[in-house]
Amino acid sequence: MEAAVDHRTGRMSGAEFRAFQGKRPDHERWELMGGVAMMMTPPTITHNRIAGKLERLLNDRLERHALSLLATQRPGLELGSGDYKPEPDVGIIDANYEAGQRFVERAYLLAEVVSDTDEVIVPGTNREWIDVKRDLYRSHDHCEAVLVIAQDRMEVELDLKTEAGWKSSALKGGDAELSIPAFGFRCVVSDLYEGTPLQPRATPQHRF
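^ that's the sequence the OP posted. Answer follows.
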């Protein structure tokens, strides 16, 4: 997501938002932000690349570590608060799901690739949407890890649930190690940016 379209529909409950969302075309992406429905514009190629790379890296590990789970992009997540219906960029969910299912009530990892939309101030607050989403994800009972990934630099903010509570760290630079023990996952930050302008592929130019 890059910027919210200036198209608001008035205040909605969570149930009203889901009913509204169900009538919209599949290509549209909406989130409920403090009771306000907002449509998002298409993401950048960099955004999609990072989200796709994270999804693949997570699934590569889950196929060996936890076949009962899978990573997917844009899982519809049902949270306890009716005023907020975010759509994470990547999530780890249960591998057993129904045909046609759109929403889940359990997610074990939630990740956001930060975009312009995430810097919008949530109606009725003085907080940016990314900060509110981060708190919402951490408050989700089943969530073990939250990632907030920058697009314009190699940086990941990582929250891990521990017995003592949430532990946060900022991983800066491509050589920083990203480790999520709950899923047996480990990589370096630059792995997430492979194929983006920050970490271009070293491939010969094709001629057509």
